Amino acid sequence: MPINTGAEYIESLRGRNLRVFLLGERIEEPVDHPIVRPSINAVAATYDLANQQPELATATSSLSGRTVNRFLHVTESVDDVVLQNRMQRRLGQLTGTCFQRCVGMDAINALHSITFEIDRAHGTPYHQRLLSFVRRMQEENLVIGGAMTDVKGDRSKAPSQQSDADLFVRVVERREDGLVLRGAKAHQTGCLNSHWIIVMPGMRLGPADRDYAVSCALPVTQPGLTYIYGRQSCDTRSLEGGTMDAGNAMFSGQEAIIVFDDVFVPWDHVFLDGETEHAAPLVDRFASYHRRSYVCKTGLGDVLIGAAALVADYNGVATASHVKDKLVEMTHLNETLFAAGIAASHESRPTPSGNFQPDGLLANVCKHNVTRFPFEIARLAQDLAGGFVGTLPSEKDLANAETGPILRKYLKGRDGVRVEDRMRVLRLIENMTMGRNAVGYLTESLHGAGSPQAQRVQIARQSNLAEKKELAKRLAGVDGSAASRRD
Amino acid sequence: MPINTGAEYIESLRGRNLRVFLLGERIEEPVDHPIVRPSINAVAATYDLANQQPELATATSSLSGRTVNRFLHVTESVDDVVLQNRMQRRLGQLTGTCFQRCVGMDAINALHSITFEIDRAHGTPYHQRLLSFVRRMQEENLVIGGAMTDVKGDRSKAPSQQSDADLFVRVVERREDGLVLRGAKAHQTGCLNSHWIIVMPGMRLGPADRDYAVSCALPVTQPGLTYIYGRQSCDTRSLEGGTMDAGNAMFSGQEAIIVFDDVFVPWDHVFLDGETEHAAPLVDRFASYHRRSYVCKTGLGDVLIGAAALVADYNGVATASHVKDKLVEMTHLNETLFAAGIAASHESRPTPSGNFQPDGLLANVCKHNVTRFPFEIARLAQDLAGGFVGTLPSEKDLANAETGPILRKYLKGRDGVRVEDRMRVLRLIENMTMGRNAVGYLTESLHGAGSPQAQRVQIARQSNLAEKKELAKRLAGVDGSAASRRD
Amino acid sequence: MPINTGAEYIESLRGRNLRVFLLGERIEEPVDHPIVRPSINAVAATYDLANQQPELATATSSLSGRTVNRFLHVTESVDDVVLQNRMQRRLGQLTGTCFQRCVGMDAINALHSITFEIDRAHGTPYHQRLLSFVRRMQEENLVIGGAMTDVKGDRSKAPSQQSDADLFVRVVERREDGLVLRGAKAHQTGCLNSHWIIVMPGMRLGPADRDYAVSCALPVTQPGLTYIYGRQSCDTRSLEGGTMDAGNAMFSGQEAIIVFDDVFVPWDHVFLDGETEHAAPLVDRFASYHRRSYVCKTGLGDVLIGAAALVADYNGVATASHVKDKLVEMTHLNETLFAAGIAASHESRPTPSGNFQPDGLLANVCKHNVTRFPFEIARLAQDLAGGFVGTLPSEKDLANAETGPILRKYLKGRDGVRVEDRMRVLRLIENMTMGRNAVGYLTESLHGAGSPQAQRVQIARQSNLAEKKELAKRLAGVDGSAASRRD
Amino acid sequence: MPINTGAEYIESLRGRNLRVFLLGERIEEPVDHPIVRPSINAVAATYDLANQQPELATATSSLSGRTVNRFLHVTESVDDVVLQNRMQRRLGQLTGTCFQRCVGMDAINALHSITFEIDRAHGTPYHQRLLSFVRRMQEENLVIGGAMTDVKGDRSKAPSQQSDADLFVRVVERREDGLVLRGAKAHQTGCLNSHWIIVMPGMRLGPADRDYAVSCALPVTQPGLTYIYGRQSCDTRSLEGGTMDAGNAMFSGQEAIIVFDDVFVPWDHVFLDGETEHAAPLVDRFASYHRRSYVCKTGLGDVLIGAAALVADYNGVATASHVKDKLVEMTHLNETLFAAGIAASHESRPTPSGNFQPDGLLANVCKHNVTRFPFEIARLAQDLAGGFVGTLPSEKDLANAETGPILRKYLKGRDGVRVEDRMRVLRLIENMTMGRNAVGYLTESLHGAGSPQAQRVQIARQSNLAEKKELAKRLAGVDGSAASRRD
User: Fold this and answer.
1) What is the 3-state secondary structure (H, E, C) of D13-75?
2) A234 catalytic, yes or no?
C-alpha cells in the first residue's frame, strides 16, 4: 500500500532507529522532536497537496502506469517540467520554507538521461536499474533524498588530491554483491525525512578520481549511516512552547551531514561506478534541473510580500506611496525570479532517453538571480516591518500577567488590529529574514544547487561568445563584412 | 502581388510624396535620404528574414489561408506568441536596432480580442472590419505602424481637460462616410516606413473623453498627414560618407511626430469610436503584447556583448578574470530580460476572440527589467571598450595621408588585429551606448511601450496582495488560523 | 569618584532593582543574566577604550574642565565631531555590535544648540539646566541613554489624533516641583545599561500636540519605569553555555521598551515643555548627529570582511579571483559608508550655542547608504562562507564523544586549520548576518536613527532643487540666458 | 603680465600654429573652430571663476609669494585640498562638462612629493627643477595639461614587451642638452587648450622599461608634436549653427591623441629619467589626487538633476510621488559621490616634501563610485525627461515656417511653459546622457583617472585584510583569543 496522506507519511518515519545527533545528543525519535518536526510537516505537505490539487501535484507515469506524486515522476513532456515549477511555487506558498523533496525529483530526472547515455557508451546496465528503482518508489510513494555535496576539505584540490582521501564520498571496496562507501555528504536537505537517498558525485572528475565517480540509491536506514543535524538560526525557539515566537511554528527546512562509515550498496542500486567522464554531465544536468527548481523561493517570496503588506496595513501606512512602491519592487523581483525558472522549464527539450531537460542557460540565470533578489526582498520586508522586527518582546511577555496588559496597550497599531496578530506577522518576517527560515530563504538561495560562482561558470560556458562576436563584426563591418555597405 | 523581398519593400516606399520634414527641410524622397535609409533597411530585414528563415518569420494564417509574414499574423497558438519573441531576438541580432514592425503586430493582436468584446457589448461591427483589414494587409504583405502615444500636453490632465483640445488625437467630425481626426501622435516608430497606420488611444478615458476614444486604420499617404522626423544622437554621421563612424552604417531606428490635420477615415476602417470604457482594456492588452516584445533588446544585447568581447580580445585582455566576469554579468542580465519575455509568451492564454494573449504580469516584469538592465550592459560595454570609445579620431583621420599612418601605428591593439577593425568595433559600441542606436537600445527601452512607472502601476494591479496576505496570515497563525498548531 | 574602567562600570549597574522583564519573567539582576550581559560588555568597552586610547575616546571638556569620556563631551571643534566617528568605528571593530552609548552623546549635542535657541525665543532656562546636567554626567562618567521613538500606534496619525492618547509619551500633569510622564518608548538602545535617560519627542508636532513636546532627563531607576526586553534572533544561544555557537559570545546590542507609568521629573531636568515648534528642529538636529553616527557599522563591516577573508582562507580559496573581487566589493561598500559619515563630520559648522553640528545632507546620505550596503556586505559574507554558514552542527556535537571525532575529520578545510577555528568563524558570520548581531548590523541599520524614508524626506528638503534648476536653465539657454550665445 | 581673465586666456591660445587634425583636416586656428571652441570656453571658466570667487578659485602660494589660480597651487594645508574639490564642483555646475585643468594641478602635486623622494634616494635635482617650473607657471598663470595614458598596444604586455617599442612614450635619445621623446599619449584632456604639458609614465615599470620611466614638461608648441582630435558623440552639432540642438552650446570637453615625433626636452624640464621604481608611486600618488578630483562630476550631476526637475515641472508632473522620489535618488547618489571625494580631501596628510596628499583608499572609493552612479543618474534623468529626449525634432524644424507653428502647438507642456524652453532642457539632458557631454559625464567617469579595475586593485591593496582578520579572530574566539570567555 503506497503512502497516501501527509499523516501516513509522518507515521512511515517512526521507529526507524536512525542514528541521529542534534545539539550534542542522539535523538530517539525524530518525528517527535520539536526541532525536527516542522521539517517533517513541510514534506508532509507534498503528500497532502497531491490529494488537494492532484492536477498540480500528481502525474500519470508511463513507467508504472500509475498516478504518482509529481516528485516521483520522470518528465514525459514539456508540461511536466513546467508543472513541477507550479507545484514548487505552491508548496513554497503553503509552507514558507524548503519542503525538501525536489532534490530526489531532480536526481531521478538527471540520472534518467545520463544512465541511458552511459549505457550506450559503456554497455552498462544502469538505466534499467534506475527505472526499476523509480518504479518501486512510485509504487510505494516514498521520499527520495539526493546526496551530492561532499564536505570537500581544501576546496582548491581535487578529491584524489586531498590529504584525507575520505573528504569526498568514495568506493572503498567493490565486492561481488555490491560496493562499499565511505565519506560524508554535507548540507543534506531533508535527508532524515527521506526513505531513500540517491548518492551522486558533486563535481567534474579526472581519471585519478575513479573511486569518487559513484552514484547509487540506498535506504536511509542502511547500517553505517550517521546523521548530524545542522543548526539553524533560532532553531531552539521550537523548544520553547508557544507558537508565536517561532514565526512559522508549523514548517521549517532541514539539513544534516550524512556520514558513510563503510556502507554497503548492492549492485542493483548502483547507477554509476567509475565512469569519471560522466560525472560532469551528470552534475550539469542535475544542476539545470535543480537550479530552476529554486522557483520554490518565489512561493516564499509571496508569503513575505504578503507579510510585508499585512504589517504595513497593521501599522496604518498601507496607502503611503513609498510603501506601495516597495511592495511593487518586491513583487517585480519575485516575478523576475519566477520568469527565468518557468522559462527554463518551458524551453525544455527531450533527451535521448526520452525525458525532458530544462534549458541550461535559463536555469542558471534563474538560480543566479535567486542568489541576489531574496536578500533585497528581505531587506524591503524588514523596511516595511519597522523596528519591531528586531526588538519585539517575547510571546511569554504577552502572556505574563504584568507585562501582557502593557504590551496590549502599547503595541497597538491601527484601530481594529489585534496586538497578537501584529506580533505574529512581525515574527513571521523575522523568521524569514533572520530566523529559522532565513536559512532556507536566504542562505540556501545562495548555496543550494551550487554557489553563485558555479552559475557564473555555467553562464560563461553557455553564452556562445563566438556567435555574438560574429554578430558584432557583421554590423561593425569588421573584415569588410556586410554592413560596410551603406544601403 | 504581395511584397516579397526586402528590396521590393524598399521600392514600395518610393514616390509616395509624403509630407516629411527633417532638420528643418521637407525631404523629397525618404528612401534616398542618408539619415532615413538605415531605418528602412531595418524594416527590410523583416522581409528578408521571412525568406531566409521562414519557420521563424512566417506563419500560416487561418484568416487568409496564406503563409504570411509573422508580423501580420494573428496568433493562433501559444507557440505563435513564443515565436514572435524568437523572431524579435533574431532581428535584433541582425540589425542592432529597432526594426519597427512590432507595434503593428501587437496592435492587430490586441484589437482582435478587444473589438470582439466591444461588438459583444455594443453590437458594433468592429471585429469583422478588423479581420478584413488584416486579411488585406496579409495579402499584400504590408507594414503596419501603430500610433498610440499622444503628445499629451500637461501630463497631469486628462485629454478633455487640456487647455488645447487637440493635444490628444480626437474625432472632430463624424460624417456619413467616415470620421475626421485632428491632433498629433509622438514617438511614432517606423511611421514613414509603414504602409498603413493603426490609430489607438493611449490611456484610460472617462465619459468626458468620448471623442478621444478612437481606433482606426489609415494609409500613411492619407491627405492631411505631416511627419516631422525626430533627431537621434549622431544622426548626421550618416551624412558624412564613409561607413565607420556611424558605428552601424546599415541600420537604425526611426521615430517621428505624425500630425493629423483633419484627416478623413472611412467607417470600414474604424475599430473604436466613443466606447470610452474599452480604451483602458485596449491599452492594457496592447501593452502586455508590446512590453514582452521588448525581448528584441536581447538581440541588441547579443550584439553589444559580442562587441565587448571582441574589443577585449583586440586589446589583448580577453583572458583577464575581471573581463570574463563582466561578460558573464552582461550575459546574465541579457538572459534575465529574455527569460521574462519568453515566459510571458509561453504563459499565453486564449482570448474570447480566439487569439492568444501573453501573461500580463510577466510582460510588465519583462519591460520593467528592460528599463534597467540595458543601461548596465551599456556601462559594462563601455568599461570593456576602454577610453577610446569616447576619444577615437574619425575615419577621415584614418584616411588622411598625414594622420592615417600615425593612427595605424599607434592605435594598434594586440598583434594580428587590424587597426581599422578595432576602430569599427569601438564605433559600434559608441553607436549603441551614446550614438544613434543608443536611442533604440537605451531611451526606447525606457519609454517605449510605456515608461517605467506605467509598468509599476500594472505590476501593482496584478500582484494579488490580498491572496499573498492570506498566505502570510496562515503561516503566522493570524486570526487563529492553521499554523497556530504545532504538529 | 567617577567610574573609570569597564569593570567599575559593570559594578555600577548592580543592585539597582530595576523592573525588567525578559522572556516572560522579571529578572533579578540584569548584570548576571547571560542574555543581557553581552550588551553590558559592549558598553563597558567604551570605558576601557578611554583608558587604552585616550586620544580617541576622551576629550577635555571646557564645561567641567575635565578629561571626559568622549561620549559625554559637547563638541567644541570640527575635530571633536570627526573623532566621534573614529571612536565609533574602532568600537564597532572591537565589539562587532552596537555599543549603545551614541544616542546619549548625540542627544546632549543636539539639545545644546536647541535649548540655547528655545531660551533665546522664549526666555526659558533650558540651556543652563542642560549644561548642569551634562557637567554632572561628566563628573561621574555615567552612561546616558536617549529615548526618542514612541510606540506610535497608527502611524498615519499625529500623537493627539490617536485613539489612545498615551501612544506617544506625554505630560499628564504639571506640578509645582516638576512634571509627570506617561507613555512608552520603543526600541530603546542600551536603556538598561544606562544610568540616565534623556527623553525627546520623535517627530514634528503641531499646536494640538503640546503635551507631547517634552524633553527631560531622568535616572533609569526612577519609580514608575518598566523595561520589557526585546528578543533578538538566537538570543537564547547565550543561555546554552559554551562560547562557539553564539558566534560572538562576548558582545551584543540591547533594545527594550520603556514604559512610563506616571513618572515624575523635577523641573531642573526638563529641557523642553510645550514649545511644539522646536520639536522638529530638535529631531532634525539629533538625526543629523545620529545618522552620521552609523559610521559605527563600518567597524562591524571590518569584522565581517575579516571573517569572510578568514573563512575563504580556511576553505582553501583565498586566491580565487572571484573571492578576492568579492572582498574588494565588500571593502568598497564599507568605505563608501564611512566616507559619507566622516565627510558629514568634517563639514560640521558651529551652532549659535557654540558646539558643532555635522552637515545634515551628508549625514542623511550616510545613514541612507547604511540602510542598503550592510545587507549586500552580509550577502557577500554568506557567499564566501559557503553553505556551512546555514547547516553547521552545534558545538555540543563537536564536544560529543561520538560525533566530535567525525566532525573533526569531515569539517576539515585546508591543511593547518583547526576545525574548531573554522566553525568559530562560520558562527561569527552567522551571528552578524542571521543571528544575534544581525539585529544590530542589519535591522538597526535600517531603522535606527530613522527608517529609510525618513532620510529620503530629509534629502529632498536639503537638495536645493531651485538652485539646481537655475544651473540647468543657464546651460540650456532657457529664458534666453547665458549659454544661448556660442562663444 | 600673467593671464587674468577668461577672454585673455582665449587670446593667449591664438596664433600658435599647432599641428592639429580634426575630422581628417588640419585646422588653422583651433580657437575659432566651432567644435573646439566650447572646450576652450570651459577652460576659460577657470580663469573667470578666479576673479568672481577668489576665495574658492585662488590661493596664496608660498612658492611665488603670489595669489595664484588654485589649479596652479601646490597644496599647503588640508584646506587647500578640500578647496580644490569645492572649486571643482562649482566649475562642474557652471560648465556642465570637463573643464580640463585638473590633470595639471594633480600632476604638480604628485610630482612635488615624488621628486623630493627621488632626489633623496638618488641625489637627483628634480625637485628644484619642478619648483622652478611651477613658479613660472604661477607667474604667467598658464594652463598645464598632464600626459599620462599611453596608447598601450597589447594591454597584456609591458612597454618593453610590445612588438613596437613606441607604443609607450619613451626616451629615444639622451643628449647633452636634453632628451628626445617618441610615442603617443591617448585621451589627452584639454591638451590643445594648454600652454604646457607634463609627461608622466602611466603604469608600474620594471628594470627593462628604463627608457619609459620619464617625466618632463614641455610647451604644447614644441616642434614634433601632432594632435589628432577625438570625436565625441554629436560633435558636429556644433557646426550646425543655432544653440539649441547642441544641448550645451557653450561648453564641452576635449580629448586628443598627442604624437611625439622625436620631441626634444631640455634637462631643466625633466623630472624623472630612468628611476623605474618610482614610476608606480608616481602613478599611485597622481591617481589618489586625480580620482578624488572626479568630485567635479557632482557638479555635472547638479546640472542634470536640475534639468530633470525642470523637465518634470514643464511636463506637469513635478508633484507626482515617483518623480519626487527619483529626484531624491539622483541627489542621494550624487552626494554619495561627493562624500567620498571630499572625505578623501579632508583626510589628507602631509608628505615629506611638505604638500598634502589625499587619502588613497577614499580617493579610489570616490572614483569607483563615479564609474557607476552617473550612469544611474543619467538613466533616471532620461526617465524623467520622457520619450522626447530621444525623438525631439530639430531646432531648424522649430524655425521652419511650416513646421514651427505645428511644433509650438503640439510640443506644449503645462500652461505657461515656452515650447522652446522645454526643448532646450530636453536637449541638455540628451547632451549629458547621449550627446557631446555624455563623453565627459559617463565615458570619462568610467575611464578617466583609471578604469574601474584599476581602482579595485588599489582598494584591494589598501583594504588591510590582515588587520580585519585579526578583528574577526578575536570576536570569534579563534586561537583561544579574548572573546572565548563569556563575561
Assistant:
1) CCCCCCCEEECCEECCCHHHCCCCHHHHHHHHHHHHHHHHCHHHHEEECCCCCCEEEHHHCCC
2) no
Contacts of A314 in chain B (CB under 8 A): none
Q: How far is D321 from chain A (nearest CA, A)?
A: 7
Show the cell assigned to A422.
Answer: 501584529
Question: pTM to 2 decimals?
Answer: 0.98
| CB proximity under 8 Å: A 268-307 to B | 302-307
**How many CA atoms does the CB half-sphere of A25 hold within 13 Å?**
6
pLDDT grade, residue A481 (50/70/90)? low
Cα C270 to Cα D30: distance, rounded to the nearest angstrom = 71
Q: What is the pLDDT of residues A284-294, one digit of tens each?
A: 999 999 999 99
Catalytic residue, from D289, D294, D314, D441: name it.
D294
Contacts of C221 (CB under 8 A, 6+ apart): C16, C17, C18
| CA separation for the pair C287, A400 (Å, rounded) | 35
Chains contacting chain C through 3 or more C-beta pairs under 8 A: A, B, D
Distant-in-sequence, close-in-space partners of D393: CB < 8 Å, separation ≥ 6: B21, B228, B229, B230, B231, B257, D403, D407
What is the per-residue pLDDT across B356-406, written as a single tens digit (0 to 9) for each? 999 999 999 999 999 999 999 999 999 999 999 999 999 999 999 999 999
Does the beta carbon of B319 lie under 8 angstroms from any beta carbon of chain C?
no
Bridge-based pairing state of the strands A214-219 and C225-229: unpaired
Phi, psi of C453 (to 5 degrees): -65, -30
User: What 8-state DSSP symbol labels residue D141?
Assistant: T
Exposed/middle/buried for A186, CB within 10 Å: 0-12, 13-18, 19+? buried
Handedness of CA D446, D447, D448, D452 (dihedral sign): positive
Instruction: Please choose, from the candidates B308, B312, B370, B307, the residue with its C-alpha nearest in 3D space to the C-alpha of residue B337.
Output: B370
Does residue C149 contact residue C285 with C-beta atoms inside 8 Å?
no
- Cα separation, D152 vs D143, in Å, equals 26
Q: Evaluate whether D385 touches D432 at the Cβ level (below 8 Å).
A: no
In tens, the pLDDT along D262-293 reads 999 999 999 999 999 999 999 999 999 999 99
**Reported ipTM exceeds the 0.90 cut:** yes
Cα pseudo-dihedral A173, A175, A179, A180, rounded to 10: -40
The tens digit of pLDDT for each residue in C70-90 reads 999 999 999 999 999 999 999
D320 to chain A, closest Cα gap in Å? 10
Chain-chain contact of B302 with A468 (C-beta, under 8 angstroms) = yes
Mean pLDDT of all residues in chain C? 97
Residue C411: CB atoms within 10 Å: 24
Catalytic site residue B296?
A: yes
Residue C246 grid coordinates: 553564539
Alpha helix positions (H), C371-418: 373-385, 388-391, 395-399, 403-410
- How many whole angstroms separate alpha carbon C452 and alpha carbon D325? 12
Neighbouring-strand partners of residue B145: B197
Q: Which residue of D has its CA nearest to B234?
A: D234
CA-CA distance, C121 to C142, in Å (whole number)? 31
Q: What is the pLDDT of residues B275-314, one digit of tens each?
A: 999 999 999 999 999 999 999 999 999 999 999 999 999 9
Residues on chain A touching C229 (C-beta within 8 angstroms) = 393, 397
**Contact, D78 vs D249, CB < 8 A?**
no
> Shortest CA distance to A414 belongs to which of C157, C154, C151?
C154
Distance, in Å, from the CA atom of D164 to the CA atom of B367, rounded to the nearest integer, reads 48
Q: If we measure between CA atoms, which residue out of B61, B63, B111, B54 comes closest to residue B87? A: B54
Tell me how crowded residue C239 is: count the other CB atoms within 10 A of its CB: 12
Residues of chain B neighbouring D236 (CB-CB closer than 8 A): 236-237, 240
CB contact under 8 A, D186 and B391: yes
CB contact under 8 A, D316 and B155: yes
